[in-house]
Each structure stands twice: as C-alpha cells, then as structure tokens.
Write a structure and sequence with these properties.
Number of strands: 18
Protein name: Secretion protein HlyD
Family: Belongs to the membrane fusion protein (MFP) (TC 8.A.1) family.
Strand order of the largest sheet: 7-10-9-8-11-15-16-12
Organism: Pseudomonas syringae pv. japonica str. M301072
Largest sheet: 8 strands, antiparallel
Strand content: 25-35%
GO cellular component, one term: efflux pump complex
Keywords: Coiled coil
Structural class: alpha+beta
Order of helices and strands: EEEHHEEEEEEEEEEEEEEE
C-alpha cells in the first residue's frame, strides 16, 4: 500500500480515489505479458508459414500426409497459445488500472483496514464503505415477536426522544442467535432521519395488532412462550401460586412489552425465571423480588 487517501468517517463520491497501490509490480507484470504475446505472435507466424509451404508439398506427394498433419497441429497449437497470451496480457493491462482503488458508490468510509507501507494481496479487504441512502436500525427481537415485512414502527434517536421517525421492516432473520435466541431485524428509517449518523443508538417502538386495543405494560422478561403462544405467570392466592395466562403481544420497547387479554392492571406477574415454573406451583413472594405489577 503506497498511500491512503481517505480517513474513517470521511464522505466520498463515486469514482473518488480511496487508496493507491505501488504500480511498479503491476507495470512489470503487464510488460512481461506483452513480451509473451510478441513471442507467441512469432511462433504463430512461423508455424503458419510452415503449414502453408507443406500444404503444397503434400498435394504434390513430396511429403506424407502424417508429416503434414504434425505440422498443421503445431500451427493450430501456436494460434491457440497466441490467443491465450493476448487474454493474459489484457488481464495484466487491466490490473495496472487497479493501482488506484476508487469508490464504487457515494457513501461514508466506516473503516480503513491497512496503512501505507503494508503489503496486501489480491482480494484482501482494505477499506469498508457504507453506501449513501436510507439508514437502517438493527434490532434483535425475541421469539415471541415476529412482525411481517413492511410493518411500521416508530424510531427515536438516543438523546432526541421527542422526535419520532417512521421506520419500516425490511429484513427479519429466520435464524436465531445461538447465544441470545433472538432474531435480527432491520428497519429502514424514513423521512427526515435519512442522514442519521452511522452507529447511532436508536430505540424502536414496534406495534403489533389492531390499533386501539387496550394494552398493559409488563417487564419484557415476564413474557414467556413455551411453544403454544406467549403468556405470563400470574401470582395470586394464599398461599401464593402461579397460574399461566395467555396474552396477545402488541409491541415491545427497550425493557417492557405491551400485551392485552388475560391480564388485569395491578396483577402480579413473575418477571424472571419464567421458564422454570409450572402451573399451580407454590411460590414465595418477597418485596423487591422477581415479581412485577402489570400497569
């Protein structure tokens, strides 16, 4: 790497030079291929002349047909070798143009992976470029929340919660993260937030279900899906026992979930360890423990 022309965070235009490689080796390789073409041209010309002379001799019976066939085969081989040499020379000539790496689109440099003086190989990434266009927010959704493509959401930039930015679901992964068991989703930020800085922290309010449906907010960890739909463990009675209540998920935020159906405001629900409980199991309720009230 001879020279780095951009820095991380810099905005670039399509065709703008990003990095410059040492052109000496590329130029020498191109010259070598040109010399190989010249040698192949000479061989092809000589074998073609030999084939033309011996064609008349075989007609006159001065040489055998098998001898002529060998000469013609050499001419055909030389012609093919010339075509191959010309193709390799064209590749080497194009490679000399790669000594200057150009941006393939408008965008922002998000990372530079090499420094001047470093030896790089063909195909090695040297710079990462985020193409200009609508920004996307990446979130990880629980198994109980599976919006459909094109669903809408409300986004807010960290530190600017008063401004609501419309967002649209573009991608939802079908493979869960092996550690968190969540699914990556990508929301396109629309409207005035198209120029949001890369790497910004964004919170999303994802609405699922019919508008106007009465909802209750519960800790997101209280929501559990054992395979038959989402629900919560409600604590009631004396002694305190847990009862399974199925709910409908309406939306999620950073630390809470909005649900409806099967739950009344003020009821206590288990907020941690929901996967360890069984219906009717007796529990001990402690102040500041693992319970929370729906609101």
């Amino acid at each position: 790497m001879l020279e780095r022309l951009v820095d991380t965070g810099q905005t670039v235009k399509r065709g703008e030079p990003l990095m410059r490689l040492d052109p000496v080796d590329l130029g020498l390789q191109s010259q070598a291929q040109q010399q190989a073409v010249a040698a192949a041209v000479a061989r092809a010309r000589q074998t073609a002349d030999d084939e033309a002379r011996n064609r008349d001799l075989v007609v006159a019976g001065a040489i055998s047909a098998s001898a002529y066939d060998r000469i013609k085969s050499l001419a055909d081989t030389a012609k093919a070798e010339l075509s191959a040499a010309q193709a390799q020379a064209s590749v080497a000539r194009n490679a000399t143009g790669y000594a200057v790496l150009l941006a393939d689109a408008d965008g922002v440099v998000v990372d530079t992976l090499v420094e001047p003086g470093q030896v790089v190989s063909a195909g090695q990434p040297v710079v990462r470029l985020a193409k200009a266009g609508p920004r996307e927010a990446i979130v990880h959704l629980p198994e109980t929340l599976r919006p459909t493509m094109g669903d809408r959401a409300e986004a807010r930039l960290y530190g600017d919660g008063a401004r609501v930015i419309p967002a649209r679901l573009r991608l939802l992964s079908d493979a869960a993260d092996p550690l968190t068991r969540t699914f990556e989703a990508r929301y396109v930020l629309e409207g005035s937030n198209i120029s949001a800085p890369l790497g910004s922290t964004v919170s999303l309010d994802i609405a699922v279900g019919k508008a106007g449906r009465q909802s209750l907010a519960i800790p997101i960890a209280a929501l559990h899906d054992p395979g038959r739909g989402p629900g919560v463990w409600v604590i009631a009675g004396t002694p305190a026992k847990v009862t399974w209540r199925a709910v409908q998920l309406l939306g999620v935020s950073d630390d809470s979930a909005n649900v409806s159906g099967g739950l009344e405001a003020g009821e206590q629900v288990v907020a941690l360890g929901t996967h360890l409980l069984h219906d009717g199991e007796e529990v001990l309720v402690q102040q500041g423990g693992i319970t929370a009230a729906a609101r």
